[in-house]
Amino acid sequence: MKALLGIFGFVIFAPLAGGILCGLDRIVTARMQGRYGPPVLQSFYDVLKLFQKQNLVVNRFHGYFLFCFLIFLIISGSILYAGDDFLMVVFALTVADMFLVMAAYSTNSPYSFIGAQRELLQMLAVEPMLLITGIGFYLAAGSFDIGHIVSVGKPLIFKMPGIFFGLVYVLTIKIRKSPFDLSTSHHAHQEIVKGLTTEFAGPTLALVEIAHWYETILMLSFVFLFFASQPVVGILLAILIYFIEIIIDNTNARVKWQFTLKSSWIVTLLFGGINLFILYILK
Amino acid sequence: MSFLKKSPWIIHYDGSSCNGCDIEVLACLTPMYDVERFGIINIGNPKHADVLIITGAVNSQNASVIKTIYHQMGDPKVVLAVGICAASGNFFRDCYNIKGGVDTVIPVDIYVPGCAARPEAIIDGVVAVLKLLEEKTKK
Ligand code: SF4
Fold first, then answer.
1. Helices A231-251 and A203-225, packing angle to 10 deg
2. CB contact under 8 A, A188 and B37
3. Is-contact B123 B33, C-beta < 8 A?
4. Which of A121, A222, A258, B109 would be B78's cystine partner, CB 3.0–4.6 Å?
5. Domain segments of chain A as ranges
6. Higher model confidence: residue A195 or residue A69?
7. What pTM does this model have?
8. Which residue out of B12, B14, B16, B18 has the highest number of ligand 1 atoms within 8 Å of its CB and is therefore the one to mutate?
9. Are B85 and B79 in contact (CB under 8 A)?
10. Which of residues 204-233 of A touch B (CB under 8 A)?
11. Ligand 1: residues within 6 Å at CB?
């Protein structure tokens, strides 16, 4: 029953919270640039508008692929909020991303191709850290089970600060913020930066946007898991981390994929790896 | 209810202009005028755009480009011609390569006059466009 409530809550409230968060993101960004910024609900207006636009389909599969992308993201989050296995969450997330890449490849456009390749590289950069996070939870809490991880008395951050830092580093890649918004970006003034979403138009682009809300909330939930025993502190810190991501987004220029891959692996190895090693010895 | 009114995304194409109107279009995005207040974004991708803003006249080389951009945009869409060049060709119209205003190749919905068109006038034009977008969604 609790699991069902968790899933229900995620499916309904994640897009609402994600959309509002994206709206706030745009306002904060605008204020940092000395502008006034759009209304808080702007992200919802954008998506509702996209549903009213013509659906330009270049390949009869791309809509289905994007739909699967959204579905698997929801499944991934549902597993997390049902309190199930952390590793399953990560694997479902990977499957979701694969569908996004396949959707981009199906459109046969050079811009989408480049975006898809960059998305694959980003997955390569992120995945090791996500797995290390899972193993870290296992060593620190004694289980991959999220229900169990949440019920541990002391916040897990004290046992795994290095892993936390590593996760926050790859978070920038995952929620598509500059300097790591290589595969597709919200601040795109040309096709190559729009990357894998270049060819999606109207309702299909709306699906990508909704998926982005789910993804943001899912990633922030990962951050929350480190403070799960103190829910209020956890939520506040997750919001703080998002705010820090906005600052990073606004103060950094987009980097090359080589740097993204190298730096994220170095951070993963240094912070995640050493933290994991210490956890293993102390166990 | 049409949500197009609340989030018109713009693609800006620069034809044979002197770049004067261009700079004014971009000025609309700066903190001084900040059109993002109305949900307007300069998107740079015809497939995502709702409004095509063209500055400058049409010449024999960019005519096909303008047509392609126009046809890549999904319905409902509107075209905004900014500046006298985009309206009629201005003082370039007698040049051997100039075809004239934007309406010689694609249908234009709104003309914004001025040489260069002021940002205030451009924003006025975009507001007029919003009304038109709502009408077009109803159809
Ligand atoms: S209308 Fe005037 S300012 Fe605008 S592009 Fe033409 S010549 Fe330049």
1. 120
2. no
3. yes
4. B109
5. 2-282
6. A69
7. 0.91
8. B18
9. no
10. 205
11. B 17-18, 20-21, 55-56, 83-85, 90, 115-116
In the predicted structure, residue B1 carries a pLDDT above the cut 80? no
pLDDT for A249 equals 87
Residue A36 CB partners (closer than 8 Å, separation 6+): A30, B34, B36, B37
A229 or A221, greater pLDDT: A221
Contact pairs from chain A to chain B, CB under 8 Å: 73
| Close Cβ partners of B103 (under 8 Å, ≥ 6 residues apart) | B81
Is A188 a residue whose pLDDT tops 80? no
What burial class does residue A66 get, using C-beta atoms within 10 Å of its C-beta: 0-12 exposed, 13-18 middle, 19+ buried?
Answer: buried
Q: How far is CA A87 from CA A100, A110, A247, A251, in A?
A: 20, 34, 30, 33
Contacts of B39 in chain A (CB under 8 A): 38-39, 42, 45-46
Q: Which domains does chain B have, with CATH numbers?
A: 9-138 (3.40.50.12280)
ipTM summary value: 0.88
Cα separation, A99 vs A120, in Å, equals 11
Cβ–Cβ under 8 Å, residues A170 and A130: yes
* A231-238 own/partner pairs: CB under 8 Å, 24+ apart: A233/A155, A234/A155
Residue B8, token pair as written in the block? 């018109």
Place of tokens 């996004």: A100
Question: What is each CA distance from A165 to A200, A240, A271, in whole angstroms?
Answer: 34, 14, 7
The residue of chain A nearest to residue B30, with distances taken between CA atoms, is: A35
Helix (H, G, I), strand (E, B) or coil at B3: helix
Residue A30 and residue B34: Cβ atoms within 8 Å?
yes
